[in-house]
Model the fold of this input.
Amino acid sequence: MNELLHRASGRHNRFLRALKRLPVDTTPVWIMRQAGRYLPEYRATRERAGSFMNLCRSPELACEVTMQPIDRFDLDAAILFSDILTIPDAMGLGLDFVEGEGPRFARPIRSVDAINDLRVPDPLTSLRYVPDAVRTIRNALGGRVPLIGFAGSPWTLACYMVEGGPSERFAHIKQLMWDRPEALTRLLRVLTDSVREYLLAQADAGAQVLMLFDSWGGILAPEDYRRFSLPSLAELAASLRRDDLPVIVFSRGANTHLDALSQVGADALGLDWSIGLGDARRQTQDRIALQGNLDPAALYASPEALRNLVRRTLFDYGIGSGHIFNLGHGITPDVNPEQVRVLVETVHGA
Amino acid sequence: MNELLHRASGRHNRFLRALKRLPVDTTPVWIMRQAGRYLPEYRATRERAGSFMNLCRSPELACEVTMQPIDRFDLDAAILFSDILTIPDAMGLGLDFVEGEGPRFARPIRSVDAINDLRVPDPLTSLRYVPDAVRTIRNALGGRVPLIGFAGSPWTLACYMVEGGPSERFAHIKQLMWDRPEALTRLLRVLTDSVREYLLAQADAGAQVLMLFDSWGGILAPEDYRRFSLPSLAELAASLRRDDLPVIVFSRGANTHLDALSQVGADALGLDWSIGLGDARRQTQDRIALQGNLDPAALYASPEALRNLVRRTLFDYGIGSGHIFNLGHGITPDVNPEQVRVLVETVHGA
Done:
């Protein structure tokens, strides 16, 4: 983190400094899914790629879309363009994206035998396109802003792998959790090892910050969360931190666990908009930076109302460094990109 | 509430007594959507009715399905079979249920003029089938268990009316909320008056407990929740309580607001499973009874695991009356009805 010592301000350092709660010239901002369908230039590249997975698997195209929002807006971080399901795909589950339906696995995990057969994928062979993309993007960024690498959390990957895709009821994974807890624990073990190897490979290739997306943490009752989601998040955060890599944990809908999450060893916690940043800050006792948490629907409001909502979020966090402005969930495809400019300018100008 | 004085225990009184946190012989239990598609006898009646709204609009058929789970299981309360969207339907929005897609309004509210044109529907004319169903059901119940009447919260009804049906992004209602807050306030005013008249008509017809479903409270940031969802819940709860009617408020996903919700004047708070009952009890300082909160997916587990999960929920609430056992969300259609028997017997036998 020597780069932090060079300059107390400016686009390159804001994000890394806020992660460490060092003074910043203005609140840094990036946006979940900032490289995405709301941008016409993204839609053009996506069409050229033919499929979503082709886009992820091509380091050149992944770099192209990663750079698009950085070129267009004054954002303070870039995030690798990829998907959280690359790991199960590399494990042989056969990932496909069905238009309008989301991800689908051809071979979901539905037996203990299938769990026992899973192996940690080598991030330098079957997942090599990911560190390759990281290197390509770092090169294209040329130090303008830091690059975030990421992975799904073990619990969230397990949900997708057992359900076979997005789910409303999560009947299969919960049946496994309650009827065969030892099998789920084994699945989480191989996934935790896989995620660590994968994130370390991204860091080796140049990712400067690592983020864990625990998208389905919030579907669990507290006792199940503490048993099946939290421990692998804590293990990964602690292990990455030992390697001096800044970590952001986003456990969606897990507001009941903010106190525990603030003690897993991460540098920042992502938050959705169902809790106020001031409230979250009190609950986490200023132990950790907070990332979030504007409702993405704010981008549908008038520019004037949007500015007020951005300022409300900044005001709610309050005085002192440690806030990374973001939405509380990914930006939606039908948003007018000009609204993103209004958001970013308001964050920086406030 | 004189009936409470007669007997300290037994199927008829448990639920009403737990609502008032009076001693009970065992924890009362009912299940959200207990009259529903998981029951073969429900599916048969539903088919005879032709459509979901025909089923709601026929007092005889609504009574038939309301009674089915009461006849089958040792449940401690019946709940009127109806839908929260009867009010907007009676306001002229043209409600229809599309198979597999949920409710749709032919004429959603998309202008301030449309809001200004809305009138409080007379519950004894356009909604007469609802109090008629309540009377028919009370008669069929013959005092076996109390009958719950219900309505959607003003905020939740506003969401459906403006979006036109279920929504993922809630772009229209949030645009209205942020760009024309005074128009939304007017919409909530007419809905609050409508819900009060509607619930009073249900009570006059024989409903002994009234429940407000704020299904979409949780999509709001705290400041918006306090401005657009909480006030009408509080106004309704206080006004119904003045008439000595027990009130249950279920504001889904609004765990950030438990302290405020416990002070609106309701008798009980419904909870989903994202928070522990013990934790919720501490946060609400034992001011109010708690209803919930088993994950509905527990019904997919083995009978043995299900029993453990039921006991975990009971244990989490702890000692003392004031717990009404329920799921944290409606029962799902593909559940084996025998699992409901396991659940109910475990609650009563614990």
Notes: The beta strands of chain A are 78-79, 95-98, 102-105, 147-152, 209-214, 247-251, 268-270, 289-294, 323-327. The mean pLDDT of chain A is 95. Chain A touches chain B at residues 169-171, 174-175, 178-179, 218, 220-223, 253, 255-256, 273-276, 279, 295-298, 300-302, 305-306, 308-309, 312, 332, 334 (CB under 8 Å).
